[in-house]
Amino acid sequence: MKVPLLHVVATDAVVEAPAFETTAADLIAAGRDRIALHLRLRRIAGRDYHELAKRLGKAAADAGAWCVINGRVDVALTSGAQAVQLGSGALPVEAVRRLAGMRLPIGASVHSAGEARQRVAEGADFLVVGSVFSTATHPDRVPGGLALVTACAVAGVPVVGIGGIDPGNGRQVIDAGAAGIAVIRAVWQATNPVDALLRLIDVVAAPAHEQEDERRMLRVEVNGKDREVGDGRTVAGLLEDLELDGRLVVVELNRQIIRRTEIEHVALRDGDRVEIVHFVGGG
Question: Can you list the domains of the chain with their CATH numbers?
Answer without folding.
Answer: 6-205 (3.20.20.70), 212-278 (3.10.20.30)
